[in-house]
Structure formats: C-alpha cells, structure tokens
Amino acid sequence: MKVVVLTGAGVSAESGVPTFRGSDGLWEGHRVEEVASPRGFARDPQLVHTFYNGRRRKVLEVEPNAAHRALAKLGRARGVELTLVTQNIDDLHERAGSQEVLHMHGELLKARCNRCGAVMPCREDLSRASICTACGGIDCLRPHVVWFGEIPFGLDEIAAAISSADRFVAIGTSGRVYPAASFVSWARECGVPTLELNLEESAASGVFHESRRGPAGELVPAWVE
Ligand code: BJW
C-alpha cells in the first residue's frame, strides 16, 4: 500500500514548537511573510537571522512526540510504502526514526551559501559575520529554507508519489500555503482517497474525503494502529 503523508506545524506543536498561524500569527510584531521572504532578508538580514536563530535553539531543545513516533512506525510497517513529506524545517521526524523525509520547505539545521550554493550543517547561530565553510565567503550564508516566492524542494517527486498513492493524509497543516495546500486536490484528481488529521478545521478541510479532529499526538497513533 502506497501512502503519502504531508505534515505541517501542528505535528510538532505538542513537542513545544510553535505553529505559524496560531493566536496572532506574529513573531515579535512581524508577520511571518516579512521574516520568511527573500525581500525580508534583503531588507533586514540580521532580523531574519535572529528569527531563525531563536527557532534553531528551540528545536535543539525539544523532543519528538507520539505523532512523529507513530509515523516512523508506519514507515517500518510491512506492506507500506510511505512517502513522508513535511513542510516543517525541524528534524523531529528523523529523530523519531523516520528515514528519507522530504523537507519541501527546507531544514533549519542547514545553511546555504548565496555565493557558491553549498549546503552545510548548521547548529549554531547564523549572522552576517558567519563564514561559508566551502568558499570562505563572509556575509553570504542564509538558512536553508524555502521562503515565500521560492520554489519548494522535491515537487516532481511529490507529484509522482501522490499520483500513484493509495492514500493521501495531511496532518496538522492549515492549508493556507501553496503549493502544499493543493496536494489534496492533486490527490483527488488522481482518484486517491484523502484524510485530514487536525486539531481544528483548516482552509482545506472541505476538500478531504474525511477529516478527524484532535491533537496529532492522539490521532496519528490511533490512525497508524
Ligand atoms: C494541530 C495541532 C495539534 C495545531 N495537532 N493539529 C495567492 C494565492 C495562492 C498562492 C499564492 C498567492 N500569493 C502567493 C502565493 C504563493 C505562496 C503562498 O502560498 N502564499 C499564501 C500565504 C497565499 N507560496 C509560495 O510562495 C511558495 N512557493 C511558490 O508558490 O512557488 C511558486 C511555484 C510553486 C510550485 C509550482 C509553481 C510555482 C513557497 C512557500 C514557502 C512557505 N515557507 C514557510 C516558511 C518556511 C521556513 C520556516 O519554517 O520559517 O513555510 S511559511 C510557513 O507556512 C512554513 C510552513 O511550512 C508553512 C505552512 O504552515 P503550516 O505547517 O500549515 O502551519 P500553520 O501554523 O499555518 O498551521 C498549523 C496547523 O496545525 C493548524 O491547522 C492547526 O489547527 C494545526 N494544529 N496544533 C494537530 N496539536
């Protein structure tokens, strides 16, 4: 059975990682779009570094939860071919034991050089003074993440996996950010049954064949069993 799972911020919420569009969707008075866009980075790189440095420190403090563990178990289940796509930039799926996680919006624990294109591990704070370990350039590193207006990673692979899937499941995502928000429609167009697991109704709930409401830490293990 081929299963495609798309996860969003809600899957890491019970680990203590804040979602984007929670109560006010703001970070210290800035809209997410201001700090997660190439224009925002060009305007105020240090502000953007500070945003990601804080999130990197937070992610290094937290642990995977029952939802991450249940998805890792699903990936090991006999007869299941799982494509795990996450919009999350944390590494909690990997730390729970999932392998080959497709990080369509990038990874917080990596940096990328704007000058030579190298991608490198990054567990420390980034700043304008950080030096690229590949080319030696200064003030050329950025978080290895996908900002608004940039093309997400792995879209061809994701589209192929959805088109041949037996089931598509979206967990803890608001359905407000494209193209991930369109995956459920892509699945339906291919005749794939679709399931949503979310604490609340999302912008895409109406498109799914079935929606279940509750915390991912409860819903995902119950679904995987
Ligand atoms: C729980 C829970 C619990 C809580 N248990 N559930 C106009 C119309 C249509 C599209 C556009 C438009 N204008 C611009 C666009 C495109 C734009 C876009 O979508 N904008 C929208 C805002 C309208 N998209 C892009 O620019 C993308 N690129 C693109 O389109 O390229 C062009 C192209 C693509 C493909 C083909 C051809 C051309 C890039 C988008 C990049 C998004 N980047 C971010 C930042 C990444 C780095 C970082 O993390 O900082 O990605 S933004 C942010 O949102 C982050 C997330 O991955 C993403 C999605 O958020 P998510 O995961 O859904 O979180 P929340 O907070 O929104 O929701 C949490 C959910 O969890 C809620 O539903 C809760 O109920 C639930 N929940 N606790 C279960 N315990």
SSE blueprint:
Elements: E1 2-7, H1 10-13, E2 26-27, E3 30-31, H2 32-35, H3 38-43, H4 45-61, H5 66-76, E4 81-86, H6 92-96, E5 102-103, E6 106-113, E7 119-121, E8 141-145, H7 155-163, E9 167-171, H8 183-189, E10 194-198, E11 210-213, H9 216-224
Parallel strand pairs: 1-4, 1-9, 4-5, 9-10, 10-11
Antiparallel strand pairs: 2-3, 6-7, 6-8
Ligand BJW binds at residues 8-10, 13-14, 19-21, 32, 36, 87, 89, 105, 145-152, 155, 172-174, 176-179, 198-200, 202, 215-216.
Give the CATH H-level superfamily of the largest domain: TPP-binding domain
Q: Could you name the CATH topology of the largest domain?
A: Rossmann fold
CATH architecture of the largest domain, by name, is 3-Layer(aba) Sandwich
Helix content, binned percent: 25-40%
What is the mean predicted local confidence, pLDDT? Answer: 95
Question: Which structural category do the helix and sheet elements fall into?
Answer: alpha/beta
* Strand order, sheet with most strands: 5-4-1-9-10-11
Number of strands: 11
CATH class of the largest domain: Alpha Beta
Low-confidence blocks of residues: none
Question: What is the succession of H and E elements?
Answer: EHEEHHHHEHEEEEHEHEEH
Count structural domains.
2
**Biggest beta sheet attributes:** 6 strands, parallel
Approximate strand percentage: 15-25%
